[in-house]
Structures are given as structure tokens and as C-alpha cells.
Amino acid sequence: MFPSIEYKEAIVDACSKLDFHYLLQDPIPESVEETPVKLVLCKVTRVSHVTGSYYNTDCNYIMYTRRCNGTLQFDTISTDLVKLCLVVPSSVTVIPEIGHTTQYVDLDGNSAMMFISFLQYRCSFEMDVAASYKIKWYINDTLVAEMEPTNSSEDLALRYNVTNDVELGYMIKCGVVKMPMEESSELLSFNFFAGWKVSDKGIELTKGEYVSVDVELIVPIGCTYTVNEQARCIKELLITDPSYTPDVCKGGILAMNADDPSKDSHKVQTLKQVTEWTGNKKDRFKLSTSDVNYDDATVYNLEVSLTDGASIRTRRDVESHTKVSFHCEMFQNMIDISYHVSS
Q1: 77 Cβ partners below 8 Å, 6+ apart?
Q2: What is the share, in percent, of the chain residues with pLDDT greater than 90?
């Protein structure tokens, strides 16, 4: 099926190496028969910007389609189509969620129940209550788990014993097979990126000035706490330059809260049991150089991480599975910033 513009985000994510994509302005009508039907085609480009990405759309192209022996055919001779990303929209999706296990601990001489958080994933699709399903889970396109056939959605989640030792920054997808297997093919979800996304991969930073970047949380973070405890359930999100030492005459990169320059971090609300996650959240930072008059390192390796909110000199990373790194390269008093998720 030729993709339409309503799926532009999934199409661009799935085929990110293409500079632009041709997508239908509207879905193909079900009434298409042998007589060719004119369709409006849009040339779509995703543009990264300091305020976030947006799409340029040029819908001045046409093509024709007809149905021949039950199969759709497309005439694209009027466009400059060279490469196409033909991705079939999937009704299967990966949903991240927080779960909690419980155990009793000693708290000031008394026994207290502790809730210990973990991240899990659910494969969401329309289920036939009379059927059983086998779910396969893939991390970075490698099969990591295969669930026994069941008709209970609770038994289809990928739990913490599989993902607990995998650092965030991976792609995860699920495949659904309706039983019996010989009568059904595997229906795959799109890859879901689990981790932190850092925006704007082509930033230039001039000494003495600043630039803004967004850090987006794609998965929820859980809170570990005990019953009746007034747990804050708040962590702090930081961008740090590990090579930077305060009060030392040396170059480096500083990151501040763009909404409140008096702070160097953003607060991240972590989730207690049965607390609903409201979805992705973006936090903006201002990046600047710590020196303005001379050049030092040509590359700065920076890290994005969650901390427990201790002082800047004693902060420790309390969420080792939520660390992202990126680097800055200096070119003639300009810094080109590119990002990668640490593996």
C-alpha cells in the first residue's frame, strides 16, 4: 500500500536515511477500480530546528492508480521518484509502562513494604477474545524473548527480567502471531526508541554565546519507595561535561536550565504504583562554553543523566540505565554538536 501523509512521522523514522519522502495527501479510496484515478502526492521533508522538528510539505505532484486483477498499480511517471519508503502502517504498537515488585524491609526496627519499580513493555493490538497469540520481542532487531501462546494481555508484556540489564538507548519492537502459527504470519510493530532523545544534531555554538537543546524522555521512570513514606519521587536531569572542573582555568561546556537559568537541571517526576504516565516530556537546556578568550579541547564529551539531586560536587548517577552521551567539536571558534546514545 502506498503510504499517506497521516503516517509521515512513522515513515520518516523508519527510513531516516532518505532526504525526503513522497506521501499521498489522502488515503487511497476503496472505490478504485480499473479506470485510473488521479491522486495528489506530497513531497515531505523533516527539518530539525532549535525549537523542535517540523515538516515541509509540497503537495504539487500527482500520480495515478488503478486496480488490476485485484492488485493496485501506480503510475508515477509525472514525479521524480527515485527511492521510496513503502512502510505498511501497523496496528501493532509498543507501549512502555512502569511496574512494581514488593518486598519487606527493616525500617527503624519495623517491617515495611517496599515498592521496587521496573520498566516493562506491552504489545498493543486488537485481540480476538476467542484466539490465542504468541508474542515475539526484538531489541535492536535481535529476538530476545518469545512468549507462550495465551489469550491474556497480561501475559504478553516484556518484563524487567529481560530488559533490566539493557541500557536505554535501544530500539524495541514486538511481533504478533495468531495461533495456530501455520494459519497466520507475524505482524510486526514499528521500532520504538527506548531512551532519551537529544534534539538538533546540527547545532553550531559560538564562544561567548549559547544555544538551546531539548532532551525528551521517551519512557517513564519509576519510583522505589516504602509504604507510608513521604517519598519525593523526583530525580534531576542534567547535561554535564565530565572533563569540566569548577574554578580551574580550563575550557569546557556548561549546561543550564533554559527555563530557570539559576538551575543547572530539570526535575523529573518518577512514578509510584498505579500512577499514570502522561507521555513524553521535553526539557530545554542552554549550552555555552565556560571560556570565551582561548581554545582548549577540540572535542567535548557530554553526558545526559538522572541524579538523586545531591550537590554538584557529590552528585551520583542513580539511574545507570538512563545515560546518553554526545560530543562537541571545535572548528574556528565554532562548536559542531552531534549526538549518539551510549551503548
Answers
A1: none
A2: 11
